[in-house]
Design goal:
- By secondary structure, the protein is mainly β.
- It has a domain at 383-506: Immunoglobulin-like.
- It has helices spanning 2-11, 14-25, 201-209, 493-498; strands at residues 55-68, 74-80, 89-92, 96-103, 114-116, 140-145, 151-156, 169-174, 184-193, 238-239, 244-245, 253-256, 266-268, 274-281, 288-292, 297-302, 305-312, 314-317, 322-328, 333-340, 345-352, 372-373, 393-400, 409-410, 425-427, 432-439, 445-449, 454-456, 462-463, 465-468, 473-479, 485-490, 501-506.
- The strands form 7 sheets. A 6-stranded mixed beta sheet has the order 12-9-14-19-16-17, with no helix packed on it. A 6-stranded mixed beta sheet has the order 13-21-20-15-18-22, with no helix packed on it.
- The two termini are 34 Å apart.
- The chain binds copper (II) ion (CU).
- Copper (II) ion (CU) is lined by residues 408, 445, 490, 492, 495, 500.
């Protein structure tokens, strides 16, 4: 059971993890010695800390918390003290962020903060044990970096399945020369929620890992009605949009900005105003199909980067993906619905610009079944398109595994946290790199690369997280311009933790 060994290591606290890292750095690792080694010993990049005039200080104190999700639902979870669920961190591109993470979680619980989508210095990436030691309970870590590319990002832990707790926040990097004009800006954070309802994300991971051979895909749902062994394992959720099996977990709640549909977040504006929505999928196992009743959406960005504007009725947003849209507001009260794709569940908020009765939480706007523009149909805005050049190196990333044996991996080999130096995908600074994501499994995977923003094909969108459907091969390109050792993984928290992760390492 390699999986449990890995989990034990993650939760063992600093002593054991530190020892493992020392061994890896001291030469006991069987990893190649010609690439940037894993481990936090030093910032091995040649970049110096940015010298800037302005700095935003943020205190991120991770602690046990009771959260009110609305409608009388309260849950015990882990969240940041003095921050509400979904509250953003906001700064202007070029401003330095100095964020101190304090770990006030229970004894023995380590954590970190990853700055999803930001091309920062490797040592600030927050991905233990590759870029730093995990922060032990009682410890602190100062993340200090200067985001240069404006856009919609988010921050979350990169330890175990902590993504499925409340330790996340949108990260908005404003453009000092914002080219879009709009009257209102709303950050819309989608999240699937289970923590503190019938157990924790770690309980669910243990259920998934124990093997589900008795409930292979396509068989009956396993959500127990017996009461004694309540399980949130989802066995029969399917979606045509996602090419089959939609997810592994039946989260009991789906939140928009931390609230359930029965007691929703309300965005207010005036008829005729133009609103910019910055939409983040902070979920762990749920793709959302999102639409605003009575409105069309104009897609302007995905994963922080501008695209040629495109109109749509609805969006499909995988875990870790972000979309920015513009919408001209009509007069009335409208449902902003985030269908949990393939799961027969939903999140919802309201947009109110005038009088009227709020639609019920069960409303299904026609737009959800209209045109759904996915990333593959977008084009990068000309200003951010990669210059055409020959590819220097191609890596094939085969996505493998099955729900029944829960052996999600890359090339059949689950990532080994105890030997993070092993078998990296090697690139050299200055290379044009091609990654072919080859999905050999029967499930879709949102594949996320740290520290870089790749491009779909010759003219497709720039993104850091991309939905790869079953049986599909997706080719993406990037320039190796940010030395270090970077995680490449499925952003389904449970798939990543089961082993669908790899390292991309620069040859030194
Ligand atoms: Cu996956």
């Amino acid at each position: 059971m390699h999986d449990f060994r890995r989990r034990t290591l993650l939760h063992a606290g600093l002593g054991a993890v530190g020892a493992g890292l020392l061994a890896a750095c001291g030469g006991a690792s069987d990893g190649p010695k010609t690439v940037v080694p894993a481990g936090p010993a030093a910032d091995r990049t040649e970049q110096k800390p940015e010298d800037v005039s302005s700095e935003l200080k943020v205190a991120l104190s991770a602690a046990p918390a009771k959260l009110d999700l609305g409608g009388g639902v309260t849950v015990a979870t882990w969240a940041f003290e003095r921050r509400t669920l979904g509250q953003e961190v906001r700064l202007t591109a070029g401003t330095t962020l100095a964020a101190e993470l304090s770990n006030r979680l229970p004894h023995g619980t380590t954590t970190s903060t990853h700055w999803h989508g930001i091309a920062l210095r490797n040592a600030m990436d927050g991905a233990p044990p590759v870029t730093q030691e995990p922060v032990p309970a009682g410890g602190t870590f100062l993340y200090r970096f200067t985001p240069k590319v404006p856009g919609t990002y988010f921050l979350h832990p990169h330890v175990g399945v902590q993504l499925d707790r409340g330790l996340y926040a949108p990260l908005i990097v404003e453009d000092p020369k914002e080219p879009l004009s709009y009257d209102a800006e709303w950050v819309v954070v989608l999240d699937d929620w289970l923590d503190g309802v019938t157990g924790t994300p770690d309980d669910v991971l243990a259920q998934l890992m124990h093997g589900n051979s008795h409930l292979d895909m396509g068989t009956a749902a396993s959500r127990s009605s017996e009461g004694t062994s309540d399980t949130l394992v989802l066995a029969n959720g399917t979606s045509d949009l996602l090419g089959g099996h939609a997810g592994d977990v039946a989260h009991p709640h789906h939140l928009v900005n931390g609230r359930i549909p029965a007691d929703p977040t309300v965005f207010t504006g005036r008829p005729g105003q133009r609103a910019r929505l910055r939409i983040v999928n902070a979920g762990s196992d749920t793709a959302y199909r999102l639409a605003l009743g009575g409105h069309r959406l104009t897609i302007t960005h995905t994963d922080g980067y501008p695209v040629e504007h495109q109109q749509t009725d609805a969006l499909l947003i995988g875990m870790g993906e972000r979309y920015d849209v513009l919408v001209t507001l009509a007069d009335g009260v409208f449902p902003l619905v985030a269908l949990a794709e393939g799961k027969d569940a939903r999140g919802m908020a309201l947009v109110r610009t005038g009088a009227g009765t709020a639609p019920p939480p069960t409303v299904r706007p026609a737009e959800l079944d209209g045109l759904i523009v996915t990333a593959a149909r977008l084009r990068a805005a000309e200003g951010v398109r990669l210059k055409s050049r020959k590819t220097d190196v191609t890596h094939q990333i085969r996505l493998t595994g099955r729900m029944s044996s829960y052996n999600w991996a890359i090339d059949g080999k689950p990532f080994d946290m105890a030997h993070p130096d092993a078998d990296p995908l090697v690139v050299e600074a200055g290379q044009r790199v091609r990654l072919d994501f080859v999905n050999r499994s029967e499930m879709w995977h949102p594949m996320h690369l740290h520290g870089h923003t790749y491009q779909f094909g010759d003219t497709g969108p720039r993104k850091d997280t991309a939905i790869v459907l079953p049986g599909q091969t997706l080719s993406v390109f990037f320039d190796a311009d940010n030395p270090g050792r970077w995680m490449l993984h499925c952003h389904n928290a449970y798939h990543g933790e089961a082993g669908m992760m790899a390292n991309l390492a620069y040859r030194t």
